[in-house]
Predict the 3D structure of the following.
Amino acid sequence: MPQINQLAENWYFASQLFWLALIFGAVFVVIGLGMYPKIEATVDARDRKVADDLAAAKAAHAAADHLEDQYRQQNDAARAAAQKAVQDAKDKAARDAEKRLAKIDAELGGKMAAAEADVAAARKSAMAEIESVAAEAAGDLVAKLSGVTVAATDAKAAVKAVLHG
Amino acid sequence: MSAEAGKFDPMHQFTVEPIAKLFAAGGNEVWLTTSAVWMGAAAIILWLFMLGGMKRQLVPGRWQMAVEGFTGFVSSMMATNIGPEGRKYTPYVFSLFMFILFCNILGMVPFALGGVHPLTVTSHFTITGVLAVLSFSIVLVVGFWRHGLHFFSLFVPHGTPWPMIPFIAPIEFVSFMVRPFSLGLRLFVAMTAGHVLMEVFANFIVQSSAAGVAIGLPVGLASMALMIGISALELLVAGIQAYVFALLTSLYINDAVNLH
């Protein structure tokens, strides 16, 4: 076994030890202490960045949710306000129409009463005219039939009695 | 490998070849060796691999994704085994894991690299043992630094009835002291055994070519099929052993940090 046999040679162990110390020492200093921490720092920085980005994304998501909520609330409020305005306008229009109708109604009622009064007056005067015409006619008829002249007032009273029962 | 001698030696692949003498210190010579070249290659390839992950983009490309997969794997292992305090030790365990992994996988390369014959660096207990002792020393230093002499309570598990303490404590102590050996030997043995197995089966294929059609063809084909399976298995072992080494190191550091 050369690993054991060569131990007897003067240069073997010294050379192995020297080169191992030199090369492994260099590996430890250059790679272990020099490069390894930098690579590890890169990995750590990346992990931190990913975690931060995830947190930021979560925060943005929450903010967006909040905004949407706010928007929905505003939307609802605006819709309610619009509905209220429409309702108010409708109510006001209905009230105005009612008022106008009442006014027109009253006017028409007045006109109707006046017309009725006119009609009554016309009927009264017509009635009076009929009475006097009838009294005259009755007087004439009596004079023709019996030759008796009836006084106008008597004829009028008789006609009135007949007309009015 | 030593076919020129006419006999087959599956252990020859583990020989560290000296390339050039550099200097001598304290009576010991230090040479540039094949082991050093492969360690250096693993380190450079590891560095290039990591460099691809240094773009530090927010949305990672494929390469950055792969590098971050490795760092995330080790850091999550440390977080599960030690907790938030484990972050301090992650650079060490990460370097350990990646270095062993790249050495293991580079040892699977079947061809020579620039004339340097392939050698699995982690199949030498001089390498794995030093790494294990390093991990063990960190455990001791951290343990005594954080808990002082209270660290010895590690040898008395929670809820041990007091008459049992004289028996339990030595067992715990021995199992604690065995850790660096088991840690280092596990990797060394797994790599050595796997590569011996591959060498043996690869040699079967070569030798069967000289054994005629009647015997050689079935033996060669069977060995080839097995070889494919073993290669896949060895790639798996390369990953698993690096993982086991890093995992056990993290568990031992957990003992030192949290005292059970």
Observations:
- The longest helix of chain A spans residues 10-146.
- Chain A has a mean pLDDT of 91.
- Residues 11-122 of chain A form one domain.
